[in-house]
Amino acid sequence: MKEAPYPNFLVIGMERSGTHWVAALLNNHPEIACFPSLPFYTEAGRNNIGEVHFFNTLAGLDRVVGERDTRSFEDFSTKYNQVFADLVPYKDKVSKEELYVMFCKRYSDYCNEQRGNKKIVGESTPAYVFHLDFIDTLYPGIKKIASIRDPKDKIVSWHFNMIRKNRKPAGEPITEEFALGYLRKRIIPEYESLLLYNGDVHVLTYERMHEKTKEVARGMVEYLGMKVTDELLDHMEAESTFERQTARDSADHTPRKPGEQDVSSGLRKGIVGDWRGNINDALVAKIDSEVAEIRKKVFDRYHVLEE
């Protein structure tokens, strides 16, 4: 299969781990486009379309829907701004190989539109962490970036995201069933996917990005083969702050300070250690115990810096 020219890289996850921040940092480099860098509002209200879920929806041709964040192929007909809708009927008319070529051509063209006048472009969708080998069959050797976050903060973020989506009542505490369920069904499988993958991924942590933003940004830019200066790093950091992100995420463009919560926003609080006060000590110990071994294996495998 002939390799399509775009995208040049992917931010492949993890969920609730600062992927919007990663995209925003990269998108503020003059030669790098990364989308979607933020949710955004339109006159009709919030528009959550941005992540096109290309690989995990295309994987629906072969995989069980729901397995490791695999979506139904028919989602292309109605979702993702219907970028791929007119190609869906070809499923029963051409071979799977031909269908892949058609979809990759459309995806490449879409990424090229997002690229604008910049040199390279990448897409950010956290579900891609479960589809790394499939991605490589379509885009061999494409560069990948992953952000890892303290599992406890991920659980808290997911809890409030469920409240935001009206899937949990406001004020409900984080139960052991909820926390360990998300840990086992989502967080640990994310680590397992990174361990099973034989290719290269540039892995960083949300915590290090928070403490040493410019250093982490430099590492990403250099991994992508682009040049960066100290002055440019200052610009990238300033333009991607929590205040800037939340101002763009808000209907009235009002920024929030780190630690402030807006229950209508998918951008949580922008702080490290959000789990404190939300998860009791006994549950903290259980979470840390369950994830400690596999987390260490991933950090060793990808030479992840924590401090």
Describe the structure.
With 307 residues, the protein is of the alpha/beta class. The chain has one domain: P-loop containing nucleotide triphosphate hydrolases (Rossmann fold, 3-Layer(aba) Sandwich). The chain contains twelve helices and seven strands. It has a five-stranded parallel β-sheet. A hairpin with a 2-residue loop joins β3 (40-42) and β4. It is globular, with a radius of gyration of 19 Å. The mean pLDDT is 93.
Label this structure with key terms:
7 strands; two-stranded antiparallel sheet; 10% strand; 307 residues; Rossmann fold; alpha/beta
Give a quick rundown of the structure:
This protein has 307 residues and is of the alpha/beta class. The chain has helices at 19-27, 54-58, 75-78, 96-115, 132-138, 151-164, 176-196, 206-211, 213-223, 230-239, 242-249, 281-301; strands spanning 9-13, 32-35, 40-42, 45-47, 120-124, 143-148, 202-205.
Specify the biggest β-sheet.
5 strands, parallel
Number of helices: 12
Unreliable runs, pLDDT <50, ≥5 residues? Answer: none
CATH homologous superfamily label = P-loop containing nucleotide triphosphate hydrolases
Strand content: 5-15%
Measured as a percent range, the helix fraction is 40-55%
Round the mean pLDDT to the nearest integer and report it.
93
CATH uppermost class: Alpha Beta
Rg measurement, Å: 19 Å
Straight-line distance between termini: 42 Å
Instruction: Work out the count of structural domains.
Output: 1
> What is the helix/strand order?
EHEEEHHHEHEHHEHHHHH
CATH architecture verdict:
3-Layer(aba) Sandwich
Which strands sit side by side, in order, in the main sheet? 2-5-1-6-7
Structural class comes to: alpha/beta
CATH topology: Rossmann fold
Determine the oligomeric state from the structure.
Answer: single chain
Q: What would the principal axes of the Cα set say about the shape?
A: globular
Number of strands: 7
